[in-house]
Design a protein that fits this description.
Oligomer: single chain
CATH topology: Purple Acid Phosphatase, chain A, domain 2
Shape: globular
CATH class: Alpha Beta
Number of strands: 10
Strand content: 35-45%
CATH superfamily: Metallo-dependent phosphatases
Distance between the termini: 25 Å
Radius of gyration: 14 Å
């Protein structure tokens, strides 16, 4: 089971990002899509669940929730854009992972058995940060995250 994870596209869905996400059964976008076209193009690859980021202020983005729960193969994944807005204890709430963006820094971190995963930024390059997307494989019921540098 492959879950593609992307964030901070800021209106730019690079061909390299689309290629890296191909084969995903589900794509999670952790906010700052930047345009409705990004969402539409991702939906051509797989089912997409997205949350609204701080740059998603246009009328099309009002449909996007600020937080979302995605369920995949029995695992509950909590999604939001800014990790600073996390207002629950993921382990106590039964979440296997917290998916977020905003910082443009790719992060894979385990806290109390919960995956905290930021795929980094797939949009315009910021400073010297890499341009990345993420993938989470489900292997024997375990989450196996990875960061994929696309440029």
């Amino acid at each position: 089971m492959a879950i593609g994870v992307i964030s901070d596209t800021h209106g730019l869905l690079r061909p390299e990002a689309k290629e890296a996400l191909r084969g995903s059964e589900l794509i999670l976008h952790a906010g700052d899509l930047g345009s409705a076209e990004v969402l539409r193009d991702l939906k051509r690859i797989a089912l997409v669940i997205a949350v609204r980021g701080n740059v998603d202020v246009e009328p099309w983005a009002k449909q996007l929730p600020m937080v979302e729960v995605a369920e995949h193969d029995g695992k509950n994944l909590y999604m939001l854009h800014r990790i600073a807005d996390l207002d629950l204890k993921p382990q106590a709430a039964g979440f296997a992972a917290v998916i977020y963006g905003h910082s443009h820094k790719p992060i894979i971190e385990w806290r109390d058995g919960v995956l905290f995963f930021n795929p980094g930024s797939a949009g315009p390059r910021r400073f010297s940060l890499p341009v990345t997307v993420g993938r989470i494989e489900l292997v024997d019921g375990e989450l196996r995250p990875e960061i994929i540098q696309i440029l």
